[in-house]
Amino acid sequence: MKDDRRRMTDDRQxxxxxxxxxxxxxxxxxxxASTLLTGCTAPVTTAALANVETGVDSAAWAKVPAGEFVLGxxxxxxxxxxxxxxxxxxxxxxxxxxxxxxxxxxxTVKIQGDQIxxxxxxxxxxxxxxxxxxxxxxxxxxxxxxxxxxxxFDGKTFGVKPGYENHPMTLVTWFGAKAYCDFHGWxxxxxxxWEKAARGTDNRPFPWGHEIELNNANLYASxxxxxxxxxxxxxxxxxxxxxxxxxxxYQTANSRSPYGLYDMAGNVWQWTADLQxxxxxxxxxxxxxxxxxxxxxxxxxxxxxxxxxxxxxxFRCAR
Amino acid sequence: xxxxxxxxxxxFRSTKGLILVAIAxxxxxxVVWGMLSGPLKEWGISDVAVQLYGMRLVEAEREGRIILLYxxxxxxxxxxxxxxxxxxxxxxxxQQANIxxxxxxxxITSMIFGLAFGYFGHNYVFxxxxxxxxxxxxxxxxxxxxxLWPWRAEYHVTDPEYAHTKGGVDVERxxxxxxxxxxxxxxxxxAVPGSLWGRGQEAFLAENxxxxxxxxxxxLAVIGHLHIMLALIAVALTLILSRxxxxxxxxxxxxxxxxxxxxxxITAGVWAVVPFERIAHVIINAGAFPVxxxxxxxxxxxxxxxxxxRLAAQNIDRPGFGKKLAALLHDPLKFGxxxxxxxxxxxxxxxxxxxxxxxxxxxxMWPLREEQIALTGHWHILAGIIATIILLxxxxxxxxxxxxxxxxxxxxxxxxxxxxxxxSLFETKRxxxxxxxxxxxxxxxxxxxxxxxxxxLAVLAALMVWRLVDLFRRNGRWAKESTxxxxxxxxxxxxx
Lengths: 319, 496
Prior knowledge:
The complex is a heterodimer. Chain A has five helices and 15 strands. By secondary structure, chain A is α+β, with helices and mostly antiparallel strands.
């Protein structure tokens, strides 16, 4: 009798234990599912941080001399044959909007549906494994329907969403970046030119030196004021933001490269000019707001199809 | 002194003690080096840790450091599998002692000096000792392959329930032998490019060169090496589970030849990456399929065995589906080891096949960085699943019982698998969400993944503390375990 009672008590305890388990599993599943399902939402804007003036002239150019430099992670010998100039900062939204208005008037770009497109004469094609043919024709420059686009368009004129005038132009494809530089008689920098401009002649891993701190650049989870507003995924910062100034209590480090360039690490990846035989991708350099510090090392590469547009990709020109 | 010596003998001479030491060392490395990445880096703890430990980290050497770290952990995992094989597969006691001693000295030397070289300045004597340690692990592998030689009459099968040839050769033993030989060859496949480090072969992580259209033979060999080693660690663990569950009967006779054929084809496919890169993937996939089928047969056998044992213990003659399910889930450790093999198909195999099929239509449409995330997530999950299976297996052999068994088993299964599922979502997110809208999704999956892994590590820590406390008891579990020469799976636990 006693044994029966004990067994019944044990059974009850086991049943209660099982129920607790089932409830715990259901709660965990529901919590995870609801968290994930609420995840796909529109991007948060940081327009509240409007008009942060960095004092850096985005129309200025840096002179880079010809000559040898330390190339890549394994410190190979790099060489730039001719001196060149490169933009101090990434091209801004305001600059790109201005260009689009002129280019639209001249007919070098056109609007098709919700895209800005323009002509590209095509790449040599080698039929390599995984290589896609980039044929002559009209290619995407900027998608107009992406919610993270900082430009405005009223059907005739391009403008910039308030507060983003001096942020880097993003959502621009390689075709769109090249077209901007070509339009002004400039060009995209080659990878070697980009790297020398970022590094100078020593073996530093970052444009400003050997260590990276959170206030050196706009990177993932760097807790900059724009990230605090937009969430952990962050937002772009105005070009030249990391110049040693204090913005409303947020102290930045002066992160210029040896030739005076800003944002050569973080904020947005930057398109470079080089084509490589056997692959249609173009190389991107510098790391972005979406990456950890190690992706901001000078030799780090990203690559993408030339018609790829992203809120984390911009460019600057050389001449 | 006697007390210290008896515990030393347990930790370094008994199978369970050796496994405990290896798991404890991996846990220690995970705790210390885990501070350098992930959420702890975001919280700034990595900077404190680097200063506290006096680490000297040079940015340009990150890839080399990570390679050293992976190797030290991998050596310890290979050692654990070796201890299990020498205890579960018949061989001479002296062979078992020699193999275990060699591999123990090897992996510990490799771990200590590899990490010291990578993270605390570059003393090249340490690098030499790191290589020496790995060479000892390789030498232990040679001894293991010799000990596993299947064609000795003394190891012929006596029970016809186990897979065997007409001449009585143990087919499961052939599978172990094939795996061991394939592993030795594949280790050399990586060792050759490794030996040329700095002489035209620079340290790199495989995910960083995927978009380079023409890769050098050394680069291809390194990529092949890391893939095949992880695959063979998984094959070895599946064979160990076969022994642990005493896999036999008709399914065993189908599964073991499949394991052998699959292992050999996968290995040949990976080795073919250097001369025949274009067709290597086809060969590898052809070899992976029979191994997968063999693992499914093992799971079916194991689960059926668990259910039958539980129902017999409960005296239930005609169970319905609910009773059978309850019986299956009753023991989370035994159920979990096999469940992880199935779960792997969802978060590793299926994702991998999808990526391979959609490579040009989807994955290569993404920027390089997205593809890198997918690749690294993919193989981190596989490594993580292997680790959870080893943990569940160790908890089972350590005799974890009662509520502790239930809590440990279910937390590992639910927390780790939730984390792995979250990482799978993260790595494939571009299929269903654009960059502009990914913010909260990414934050959420990262949170879920971190929480799941933290919970798994917490129960691992609890397990280690439990065993540590036990070592201070005069007649603790360790005293009994130190006299066990071979391992036998404890029966499916019946609730108290």
